[in-house]
Amino acid sequence: xxxxxxxxxxxxAMAAPxxxxxxxxxxxxxxxxxxxxxxxxxxxxxxxxxxxxxTSGERFGINENLIFPQGSAIKIGLLMEVFKQAxxxxxxxxxxxxxxxxxxxxxxxxxxxxxxxxxxxxIRDLCILMIVLSDNTATNILIDLVGMDRVNxxxxxxxxxxxRLQRRMMDPAASARGEENISTPAEAVRVMEILYKGxxxxxxxxxxxxxxxxxxxxxxxxxxxxxxxxxxxxxxxxAGVSTEWAIxxxxxxxxxxxxxxxxxxxxxxxxxxxxxxxxxxxxxxxLSRATGHGLYKQ
Length: 298
What we know:
Layout: H1 12-15, H2 22-41, E1 46-53, E2 59-62, E3 68-69, H3 75-87, E4 96-99, E5 119-122, H4 123-132, H5 136-146, H6 148-157, H7 172-176, E6 182-183, H8 185-196, H9 203-213, H10 220-223, E7 231-238, E8 241-248, E9 255-262, H11 268-289
Antiparallel strand pairs: 1-2, 1-9, 3-6, 4-5, 7-8, 8-9
Helix pairs in contact: 2-11, 3-4, 3-5, 3-6, 4-5
């Protein structure tokens, strides 16, 4: 299996604890890189990951520029476009939309179980259902609201060349034609960095988007982080594919991470993603707590 670790030496001086002992810290980083490579290489599918220290800019990467199907993680891009069009006064997030049978699809979510046209939900509520319950019916309503082409135009304007929404949820015919929702670990991390830094629309809009992504839900990356640490994230899973995009709000050392696998076997992806999350948290926790001599601040 071909693997590549991107471990920019240029960032080591910024990343290592202050006051010296750089050689000691390089050993810690090298061991972390080796562990990440071991985890990604231990699955039978193709796995890629990227992680970015949002304080210093230090990176880890394994196959970070490979393109992977995204499952529901692509819904982050759709969420951003909904907020963009709301900011352009095309609609208000409080506007109501009817839930009718033309939008209902199977898979995850609860709206498929409701009566035809018996419920009206706000656009914001549809966004929350899309992210928290990964509701596919809510997602398709929002795709039809904003337009797939507009989502992709916004992603392209952000400099993302491989992140694309190319089909509605639960559309096997489109998937069979190769119209898959795709991204790379590097671009997913870039999206999370943009949101964290408030570089999309406004700081207020990014904070609102992240507040939705922080809402509790299951995920592999969050399972590798202590319960008292906030995580803004969206996982995705379809047959043979596991993905997750996240920001881990570690005190004094927040970081973005994306992990993706396809050609997955026997559910290896989520277990490996949790191990990657544990490894990254261990590394960045030490950066946040250590003095230049490797002592942890009390």
